[in-house]
Amino acid sequence: MFEYFCAEHAKIPIIINSDKKIMDAYIISIGEELLIGQTVNTNASWLASQLNLAGIAVNEILVIPDKEETIAEAIKNAGNKADIVLITGGLGPTKDDVTKNALCAIFETKLVLNQNVLEDIKTFFGRKNLKINELNEQQAMVPEAAEILPNPFGTAPGLWFNQKEKQYIAMPGVPYEMKEMVLNHVLPRLKDSNTRFHILHKTILTHGIGESFLAQKITNWEHSLPDFMNLAYLPSTGIVKLRLTAKGYNAEQLQSSINDAVEELKQIIQEYIWGYDDDTLENLAGKQLLERKQTLAAAESCTGGYLAHRITGVPGCSAYFLGSIIAYDNAMKEKQLGVDKQLIEKYGAVSEEVVAAMVRGTIESIGSDYALGVTGIAGPSGGTSEKPVGTTWIAAASRSRIISRQYSFGDNRERNIVRATNAALALLHELFREESPKNKV
Amino acid sequence: MFEYFCAEHAKIPIIINSDKKIMDAYIISIGEELLIGQTVNTNASWLASQLNLAGIAVNEILVIPDKEETIAEAIKNAGNKADIVLITGGLGPTKDDVTKNALCAIFETKLVLNQNVLEDIKTFFGRKNLKINELNEQQAMVPEAAEILPNPFGTAPGLWFNQKEKQYIAMPGVPYEMKEMVLNHVLPRLKDSNTRFHILHKTILTHGIGESFLAQKITNWEHSLPDFMNLAYLPSTGIVKLRLTAKGYNAEQLQSSINDAVEELKQIIQEYIWGYDDDTLENLAGKQLLERKQTLAAAESCTGGYLAHRITGVPGCSAYFLGSIIAYDNAMKEKQLGVDKQLIEKYGAVSEEVVAAMVRGTIESIGSDYALGVTGIAGPSGGTSEKPVGTTWIAAASRSRIISRQYSFGDNRERNIVRATNAALALLHELFREESPKNKV
């Protein structure tokens, strides 16, 4: 995360951020689908995270419709507010995409046919054994004043305008097309030109304690942070992230101040911390399993495959993850996991006894070194007064040890699935720690 | 979706939308976590979709940092642009939340202790057997000029300001707290006061054809749409959504025009349409299975549980979904699904023979009426020149029939998982259609 430190700044004293000193960006996302809520704006958050890592602050993110005048007005306004204006969307082949016209209007240029782009489009379709149609050909009409950014995954090229020391960069809205363009063409150039200022983040990831209780525990520490550092609380489903931000010119000194603050924080809330920055519970679990050369399998009921999905979201997981039995139906718990029918009848499918039998059955039938088991009532129906919706039993087991625990989540199905999955992965980390105290974070 | 039609408008002629005639909203999302890309702005898209269904247009969505002056400026500006300003975030108990101060500054009011809110907060913590702390108590300090919206799921109440016929509504940023507030307090009031104008959407969901080819096929139909209607193309992973929008006063006439357009469209691209509006492949599959009183199970390799997760995302799915075997490891394909080891050795795990054996094994060992099977190379590694990353075999089977098909997705792991899942569910629909031609959409 800190690879962008520059040694040449080491002697410059740390200063408090001032908006004038920092290279900044304004993101404009274009598309009716964002304004009617049909599409979530993942493009803007991805862009923001990438810019931030490059030491460029994002001032604002604006979402506007596919209307030529609105687009033109927004781009002009953004240019007054930031050094770099990043625009996504509205470059597609269809009638509702008008960004190119807006760009021509404000930069007083016109659309011209670009032969290179046309060739790229033909190659793109050729690879798929498809013939180019008229709409695709129009994609090769680009503003004369723009520098062209190639789009290997699609037909709309990126457009870069350098106007009075401000950079305006228009890109397609299809996420993977935009991302390739940013990573290979936009960020390298922006990073090269950014020698002004550093913003460093360090995020501390906790599980098992609510935001306000965490805040109370660390209030003295928080108040003792220096002026150039600040703390934000980011609560999500079962996890609270603490994000420390430091801003200034002296990257080395900033990093050392952040490291000191984190060390102090660890003294206070060690038992709740499970990772840092972009760590995920599943990534860290994978690393531990790879180190130990051991394997994991799972048995899921209420999480319905989401636990396996999270684990298999990690590239290379096939080295340690054998698989999962999604035993949604009780008969599957019996047949595939060997859970005794009488246990289910006596204690119910959501019980300590059954979750323990599930993880034991998983280790036995799949042959893994570790197993995770989840059984619960995700909702909206299925709850009783004794076991309301949200009641969940989770177990983590090795060949010699089982930890199992009951959780009371809420009454929202979607959230319960995520919470149970986070809790299961956190329980696996707890088991790892119990087994090898040296491995404590 | 069309339950908000008002009979009283039936006689008013359809007019082309003009921004002056329509109740509109401006969404402001507050939080550094959105600007550094740590959190995706799902709040804004959810809010936008709800407002839209209530016939209220969202003009713009703006994301700004937790800075008092920036917040105050943005709220003022939003009030000039729209009838309703919805603000989320920055109301939490921690030091970085300053929205309340900004609201007091622009509406010239001050923070006062609200006893009702304090009681609510105490009750909230009491239910969890927790004692209230000082930070939580501060949540009961609210702007004197604001009307209070209760927050049963959290400690920050909503704040509603009615200023010169403009409505300003500030809500917490935690998604489920905000959603409860919007559904139970904000939308009912806004709907009551909105008798001006209707925006109707109808989205047609297609699979199996790319955006530009679809556009070419329906170009004549698109050009024949009346002026008060427009079409947008929303491509996502393997699916292209066509969104028809109609705007005007006469809701009945708008609806009938949309229905006519959809009927005409069905004549042209029937075979690619699998659903409408908020339909999902998994929801529709669930409905079909419920109707048929039949069950489904799955066997997944490269989708790693995501297929089961999508299927179990549907409330009530336990009536028809028995479970899934995530056979990530080949040994699990053999042991849990009864796939012949020699088949895997001879044809490879990613082959027509193995996927067919997987679905047959699923039906046999789990006892379901239908089975879906997926085996592929999600990437980034594992590809060969013969079977590059993205190569995927998918099968859908009933007790008497199997459809299997090879797909060549791309080289992005995450996207391949989603594409394979969509393709598997689409293949199940194809099997349903083949089995009962009457059920064709």
Quick structural summary:
The structure is a homodimer of 441-residue chains. Chain A has helices at residues 32-35, 42-53, 68-81, 99-106, 115-127, 134-138, 175-193, 211-217, 219-223, 251-269, 281-292, 306-312, 330-337, 341-347, 352-366, 413-435; strands at residues 24-30, 57-64, 84-88, 111-113, 141-143, 147-149, 158-163, 166-171, 198-207, 229-236, 239-248, 273-276, 296-300, 321-327, 370-376, 391-397, 402-408.
Keywords:
441 residues, homodimer, Maf protein, five-stranded mixed beta sheet, disordered N terminus, alpha/beta, six-stranded mixed beta sheet, Alpha-Beta Plaits
Largest sheet of chain A: 6 strands, mixed
Shape of chain A, please? Answer: globular
CATH class identity of the largest domain in chain A: Alpha Beta
| CATH topology category name of the largest domain in chain A | Molybdenum Cofactor Biosythetic Enzyme, Chain A
Query: If you average the pLDDT of chain A, what whole number results?
Result: 88
> How many DSSP H or I helices of chain A?
16
Q: What quaternary form is this?
A: homodimer
* Count of DSSP strands of chain A: 17
CATH architecture of the largest domain in chain A: 3-Layer(aba) Sandwich
Q: Which strand-content bin applies to the residues of chain A?
A: 15-25%
